[in-house]
Amino acid sequence: MISISSVSKQYKGAPRAALENVSLEIDKGEFVFLVGASGSGKSSLMRMILREDLPTSGSIHVLGENLIGIPNRRVPHFRRKLGVVFQDFRLLPNKTAAQNVAFSLEVIGKSRGFIAEAVPDVLRLVGLEEKANNLPSELSGGEQQRIALARAIVNKPAILLADEPTGNLDPATSIDIMSLLERINLSGTTIVMATHDRGIVDRGQKRVIELSQGKIVRDARGASYGVGE
Amino acid sequence: MRFSFVFSEMGIAIRRNLSMVISVILVTFISLTFVGTAGLLQQQIGSMKTYWYDKAQVAIYLCTETSPAEVCPQGEASQDVQDTVTERLKSATLAEYIDKYYFENHQQAYETFQEEFKDNSVAKYVKPEQLNETFWVNLKDPNQAPIIIESFNGLSGVEEVKDQRTYLDQIFSILNIASLAALSIAALMLFSAVLLISTTIRLSAVMRRREIGIMRLVGASNFYIQLPFILEGVVAGVIGSLLAGGAILGIVQVFVQGFLATQLPFTSFVGIPDALALLPLLVATGGGLAAIAAASAIRRYLRV
């Protein structure tokens, strides 16, 4: 599903490599925590899986696509098979919750009929159907992240990338988001989640990949956040 | 592809960026008005050329008593000279170039002169014998005037052979300079319109960078992302060019047909059909330039 082999990334002008000889395999349906200090290379890795960036060397295959060789015009179609959520939600402030979700379908050319069915369905899944017509400013942080999650999964992606999705949320709300992510995972979606949140990782007891200074220092299943920090 | 969505996105972009869009419309409007004016001048020159060149003749002026002695030592041209000229005009070598010719004697020349200068005091002092007897020659192809000029120049009893188009060419060169000036101004203004359009589109893209970011993330194709911006530029360009077309029609209706044509009744001027013929050209120029400028601006913005 995701196959990364000997990937290194050296940004211009940076003193050391952001990623150094990273190799990993993630299978269909897995839930993986990506942990490590700021600057350890988590975000660089996520960007490469999304094909927002290319490695300096090494190879990346995601969903059967060789991301090094994929032509630029095919990148949008590749990204439609992935969902992404961020720490800062990235909702459009002038659109309602439902419009935010619908927007991501409109811009990939989905029909009105499809959108009219898919949006209420996904809002129900994240438990916000009654807030469909609220603007993001009228929603709490947790609710905003649910909308962002709804937007990420409305197109039924095979992989969901979550970059610190609970980073801006209080612990109770974080647990809600985590249980939502676990439900999404149970329906077959592979999830890669970068996080700093020790409590969440320890509670999850899932596969943990730890990065430090651009290298994988640990890859363990059913693990906790780590002993080093 | 959902066009209603693309158009509503374009509408939002235009509303947010309204002042810049208006400035694009105005600059396109003014520059294309200059383009249209240059086009009208060229059409005017063209129609005057066909009108006047057809009428223009080669004049073979015969000597008079008052002609300068160095060209006409014998004074007034004799009947022999007239016969020689007639003979040559009828000869096989020249006849094939000549459509028709006629002879104008002193008295006829005097009457024409009195008619043309009836409000001028010079008419009182001119006597018939001072005016040249003239052979007026119409050519099948006015460009072949040099053949006639060469055949009769230097013939004794002929004062001068003159292609009347040389008078017209001066007028046309003035009109040509005017249309060139209009075109140069138009080129400068169009250049600034292109710069303004690309700045406007980039500004619009910066204002909508959040939307663009999400569009890229969820896998919207580049074409889909770029289309509303390109359309924003094209809409502004087309509105500007339609305004320019309106201005051109107004100039033709009010100034050319309403003023010039009544002042100079025997001249053919450009009309509304000529201006209407320019309209598609203006719209294509305005819309096309805007599309190219907007597309290259948004592509450069999105690449970074």
Number of strands of chain B: 4
Give the overall silhouette of chain A. Answer: globular
**Rg of chain B, alpha carbons:** 31 Å
Helix content of chain B: over 70%
The SS-based structural class of chain B is alpha+beta
Work out the helix count of chain A: 7
Please compute the radius of gyration of chain A using only Cα atoms. 18 Å
Principal-axes shape call of chain B: elongated
Biggest β-sheet strands, sense, barrel of chain B: 4 strands, antiparallel
Number of helices of chain B: 11
Q: What profile does the largest beta sheet of chain A have? A: 6 strands, mixed
Largest interface: A-B, 23 and 17 residues
Tell me, rounded to a whole number, the average pLDDT of chain A: 91
Q: What share of the residues of chain B does DSSP label as strand, in percent? A: 5-15%
Strand order, main sheet of chain A: write it out: 6-7-8-3-9-10
How do the SSEs of chain B run, as a string of H and E? HHEHHEHHEHEHHHH
Q: Low-confidence runs of chain A (pLDDT<50, min 5 residues)?
A: none
Strand-pairing-aware structural class of chain A:
alpha/beta
Look at the structure and give the mean pLDDT of chain B. Answer: 86
Strand content of chain A: 25-35%
